[in-house]
Amino acid sequence: MSDTIHIELTINGAAKSADIDPRLLLVEAIRDTFGYKGTHIGCLTGDCGACTIELNGEIEKSCLVLAASADGGEIRTIEGIAPDDGGLHPVQQAFWDEYGFQCGYCLPGMLFAALDLIESNPTPDEAQIRHAISGNYCRCTGYNNIVTSIQTAAQRMAAAK
Amino acid sequence: MSVASPYPKAVPEANRYIGQRSRKLKGDQFLTGKTEYVNDLELLGTVHMSVLRSPHPHARIRNVDLSRVRQDPRCISALDGEEAKQHADPIPHFISAAVFGGKYNDVRVIATGKVTYRGQIVAAVVAPSRGDADALLDLIDVDYEVLPFVLDGDEALEPGAPLLYDTEGWEDNVVIRIPFVEGDFDAAAAGADHTLEDTFYHHRYSTQPIETRGYIASWDPRAEAYTLHFATQNPHPLRWVLSAALRVSEAQIRIIAPTIGGGFGLKMPGHPEEGLTCVFSRILGKPVKWIEERDEALLLGAREHFHRFKVAFNADGKIVGLRNHFTANVGSISACPGWGMAFLAGLSFPTGYKIPATDVVVTAVTTNKAPWQAARGYGKEGPQIVMERIIDLVAEATGIDPAEVRRRNFINKDEFPYKTNSGLNIDSGDYHQALETALKLLDYDGFKAKQAAALAEGRHIGFGIAFELTPESADIPGTIVGGYDTSTVKMDPSGKVTLLTGVTTPGSGNDGGIAQIVADTLGVDLDGITVIQGDTDICPYGFGNYSGRSMVSGGNAALLAARDIRVKLSKVAAFMLEAAEDDLVFDQGKISVAGTDKAVAIKDVANVIYTLAFATAHMVEPPLEATRVYKPDNIVHFPDEKGRIQPYPTYSNAVHVAIVEVDTETGKVDLQRFGVLHDCGNMINPMFVEGQMHGAAVMGFGAALSEECKYNADGSLAADRFKTYMMQRANEIPMVEVEHQVTPSPFTLLGVKGAGEAGVGGAAGAIINAVNDAIRPTGARLRRTPASPIHVLAALKEAQ
Ligand code: FES
Ligand code: FES
């Protein structure tokens, strides 16, 4: 296996390492090498957002990143959004309460886009929310309840501050 | 809103689940990434399949040479069409055109003899990884004799057009021609004040759930049985399809559908890859996995209709006759149910309007495009767009307001049930009221002034209206498309409820809706109910997910089953409480005697039934399990005197309204506001119903504005990825503003009608009408979908 390369990553706080094929996409490494199946694949062309993760604090479509290039990086996946106490993050809670998803396949992209937006803009309006999630496709919800979920989450988080 | 109650009125409304916006079951699992979709399953020893697809739209396969690929150490197995024939028979057609007098062609897991579309499978390989399998495809050598091909439906009908199939019965490319004729159109036209003729092209587009198809087939050589983890909407029907193709009994196949990332029709049975993974698994005795790639999902299209219509109408806007002879370019023949959309498109005319004479003929024609697959709306969405164009054209010709033309032609609310010209029996509705509510939603009355003001500034805004009739919960005779379904309700000795049903959820949340019905009927907590769907060895026989049928069939079946359990609980509780059964109230986990403080926990009654079967519970038959079927009323398969059948129990309706602005320089359409009044009868969970409408409407936006399965002249797909097949993104569209009207169905137990398909055709129809309204001052008319810049500019140019 001389044509593999060694990578080390932190995923949701846990140290991970593996010898991988240098051509492996980050989404494949996350899913298949490290077993975090909550990150999904919808297109592999960077258009749908189902593969979204957080890499070193930035949200990324992991199908557009080579796993090798993420070596040493800190990754958060959808499995790492909820607090450790077993509850849900307020953004997740709002998505549940407002029926912000149906099949759930698009959730990695939608949740990370929502988290990212609210962090930089705690009181987003509808247009800002729509812009923030526009890199992600959702085929089930028509985005209506995703927008509402993010509004609700932002309001609840602001009120809790 | 009034919702029919399945239990005595004594339970306070606040404690009921039916009619409430209960959250999705197991939502936390989805939100934390724990839900398993098919691609997430890892079965020990899994190997991976990849398929080689034809690069030619029409060719004879002279030879497939697998010798190079077989020499490669990564190749575990490889097959061509002739070899696959040894292992599998033709795939039975899910809905065969032959059942309706049309033509049939064998469809196999790998093509033999000929390919009729670019993308058809000609060989397949299995390797340790998908990457290896994909790489191996380069080592397969296929010798083709390239044949002339035809992509256009009209051209395929011309004499001398390349013939797709040279098997018996195929003297031309017509799959089937179905007339829906009632009254004398020519006489109506001769007697009418006016007639008009025009055309409308409804383009090819498709479903595209974000999760593509995926299959893991495992043959167990010892048990001589398959376990199939397949992303399918219809496990039981698929088992039937595969048993026939794979020469095994249905009992040798267990299908387990995991959580599905959206279906919309794509994941209905008949795909060659379903059987092909099984064939390899049987050869190898290992799990074989195949996950569809996006360019493969984009091959499967739906809807490509060319309408040529003539309308006869009077000066008062009343339409007296409609002739519409249209073609449906269904692409190549497949075993999937796609082509049937053409049939139902014809059947659905003239939607919710009373037109005395109709002469509608649909000709389904096969071409060298990839096949159709079922797509949300299942053919019923097309007629909405065309009928609504027709209404607006009549309005324009008579000078009568388009809303008024609709009022004058709608079926009246006191005329239901109403038998349509094609034989449909529409259950109930109030279309006039629906229209008024929808118009108010976007202030129709105030729009004319705004439009004039905008035009004075050189801006083109338009208002579009579309009525939508959605026949739902079909039973198509002679096919494995059933209108009934089965549910099992079990209460265990600790009082917990398990619900198993033959309907499946592609993500919509019908599991939750059905659980709400059961929770109310038994007076138990919704969260305590476990729902199991999609497993053919565990669930009762059912048809799965299509045609907005989950509540109508599975929901009502669960109601019946839960009532059976309740009867037993009630008898025993009455004995335990020394009360009359009529006085018992089931609520919040307790059975209490109305007007007293006497009560017993339901779990204790359940326990008594299991443990004191010969004493306290002697009067009922244990255990607490019931399986019931629900067959809705109103389906009639014995043909009437005119030979017409009535395949749908319920008819939801909606009125869609849209406001657009068209940039006449760039052709870009900006959808500014969108509203819909939806009536699907009683709603078990309005939040789920609205969610369906939101999603369907936005698919309709895509249909009207951007999505297009475009082909290149060489027969290849131009729109083969999301960069070229463009669905609507969140920042391009407004909110879908939904209002409800509730006209219960008299033909279903809970007064529910189908929900889920409505929205695609109505939304698209409203937008196309709005675009036409906006560009009318330029003299232009858009006679096709989608209203993408290129087609809008072409229409504007034509008018100059
Ligand atoms: S899979 Fe990465 S964007 Fe679609
Ligand atoms: S919920 Fe299904 S794709 Fe978004």
Overall morphology of chain B: globular
- Quote the average pLDDT of chain B: 96
Oligomer type:
heterodimer
State the share of residues found in helices of chain B, binned by percent: 25-40%
CATH fold name of the largest domain in chain B: Aldehyde Oxidoreductase, domain 4
Structural class of chain A: alpha+beta
Major beta sheet, strand line-up of chain A: 2-1-5-3-4
Please provide a written account of the structure:
The complex is a heterodimer of chains A (161) and B (800). Chain A is α+β, with helices and mostly antiparallel strands and 161 residues long. Chain A folds into two domains: 5-80, Beta-grasp domain (Ubiquitin-like (UB roll), Roll), CATH 3.10.20.30; 90-160, Orthogonal Bundle (DNA polymerase, domain 1), CATH 1.10.150. Helix content of chain A is 34%, strand content 16%. Chain A has five helices and five strands; from the N terminus they run ββαβββαααα. Chain A has helices at residues 26-33, 90-97, 107-120, 126-132, 144-160; strands at residues 5-11, 14-20, 52-55, 58-61, 74-76. Chain A has a five-stranded mixed β-sheet, with helices on both faces. In chain A, helix 2 (90-97) packs across helix 5. The termini of chain A are far apart. The mean pLDDT of chain A is 97. Chain B has 800 residues and is an alpha+beta fold. Chain B folds into three domains: 27-35 and 484-630, 2-Layer Sandwich (Aldehyde Oxidoreductase, domain 4), CATH 3.30.365.10; 39-147 and 209-297, Aldehyde Oxidoreductase, domain 3, CATH 3.90.1170.50; 305-476 and 637-799, 2-Layer Sandwich (Aldehyde Oxidoreductase, domain 4), CATH 3.30.365.10. In chain B, the strands form seven sheets. A seven-stranded mixed β-sheet of chain B has the order 3-5-1-12-9-10-11. In chain B, helix 11 (381-398) packs across helix 12 and helix 16 crosses helix 17 (602-611). The longest helix of chain B is centred in the last third of the chain and has 28 residues, at 550-577. The radius of gyration of chain B is 27 Å and the shape is globular. The two termini of chain B are 51 Å apart.
